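Entry 14. Structure prediction run on the chain below.
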Amino acid sequence: MPDNRQLAEQLQELKERSGRSYTAIASRTGLSRSSVHRYCQGLTVPGSFGTVERIARVCGAGQEELNGLYPAWVRAAAQAEAVDAGAAQGEDADAAEVRDGAVDAAAAKGEAVDAAAAEGEAVDAAAAEGEAVDAAAARDEGGRAVAPAAAGTPAVTSPATAPSTPEPPPPRSWLTRLRRPSLAARLRPHLLMITALLCAGGVIGYAAFGPLLDSPATGGAESARQQVRGPEWSMAPQRIDGEFFGVTMNTDTGQMPDFKVSGIRLWDGETRWGQMEPEKGELDWSVLERMVKGAERAGLPVLFTFGGTPGWAAPDSEHTLYGDDTRTAPPDDLGDWDRFVKKVATRYRDRIGAYELWDNVGATSHYSGDMRTLAAMVRRASRIIRGADPDAVVACPSFGRLWERHGQDLLREFARTGAYKYCDAAALKLHPRRADGPPEEIIELAAKVRDDVLYVEGIGLRLWNTGPGKDIVTRPQLGARRAEDYAVRFYLAGLFSRKAKLDRMYFYSWGSTGVPLVVQPVGGAPTEAGRRIGRLQSWLADARITSCGFGTRVGLPEHVYECRFQRGDGEPGTVRSWLAVRWARQGRASAELDAKARQLHRMDGGSERVRPGQRVEYGESPVLVEYGTE
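Output returned:
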């Protein structure tokens, strides 16, 4: 593994474990967002270990992890220096710039060479992060070059300093001689060896003295952090999307949920392309017609998902996992795709309100084509649908495996095709790391995908969560007590992710008994989990969301989440009541109610009068605290 990749993967692992986005880490370390992204992706190496330490501590790294990061940074920095040395010998495209420059005082630490060194000026570690350096700052009043403070000395240019203690920089006359390319090329290998020896000793020194550098008295990383109180985000009161509480249907019967939902998604109900058109030009509308009519009777909007190419349209490709003649590849002739899309959109104009243009890209069991072809299918389908039904909403294909770098890379590749400009929403598979993991991991994944991929690629569409990964059918069923509130927390995690523009959630699934959580079997009564989905919607009827947060920042115990709402039309003086839904990710914890609390509602349907200052226990079953306005 390349040395810089090891460091990058360690930083990326810490970032993912912390649940913080690149933007959040940047704001807490004083670095730019792009710098944090480059370090975690292995695109560049931090110029000082202080930078690595700041990122790691914000992500919750302990002393043992810091000790492990330091050797990785030493190797990465040495590798970067070796690349520079090769550049000085004409092996790098930037050789001319290196030859024109000079090695600054930080060369003994293996840090990057800044162009300002060509002027003989000392450059601090920030230069390796691509930040601007004022050349005058590197000189004293007499115009002489000033050596930077040795690493390990408190109050240097970064809040957390490097643990090594290199020798002072050589005199300016020696630096001047280094401007000669041939001499620089000969000396760099010796500098690298000195660097390695010094850094090896620095590991021991850091283990012994590193903790002292973090104390407020020494101006370490901890003292530089802001102590922020308040929610993760807040906004002017906004309505919840009318189709937020959706479910994916796992039936072809036309039956609909007996508990309150706000929309249905058609995918596992035998409406895949290959099932509807088993022979070219011969369409069977019976199942889709039955499902749409059932939704119309129940007053439920429909999201139709395309996918499952017929065998005749891609005869040489692999079968899907559905046990029929649907295939994973796009059709050999995209004209076949165009004709099918047009027939569906024309027939169901004004009856189907939204279309998802493929399911679960990233899983080869669902799509095995390339992103360029998928983008072409999106462009063509979008034009056809909007031509047939201008009011229809188009969602780009849902991407899965987003906890993995492979899935994120595919999403990034698709974004770079420009296909998102043909869509109204971006569909994603946002789910816990495991199908039966805590629903709150959806919050982490939504922020990760939004900040690390879509934001970077300039995609600002609203997001729809259209379900889990394909391992959903392999997980055992949840225990009865846990199952009661799991689906409710799934939707609450979506509300918490409103900041990431997540505005629709489709729970997987309705009608099936072969998934970890059954909300209602076809022909049976809703389970308690299903009834609680309806109860949550009743709690939030006519409510507008205003903020979400968790833990001590919002005055609650650790692991306790909160989303706040108000009833009224959002204008001053029209608020009828304030609402707070609270729940714990795990365990139980208690806290005192704040001012104006008057009613507590529980998921089992019970409620009680409460008063400000009363102590309330929070657990994995959400509660609703209602506040008065006077």
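Confidence is low (pLDDT under 50) at residues 90-187, 193-222.
Filed with the rest of this week's runs.
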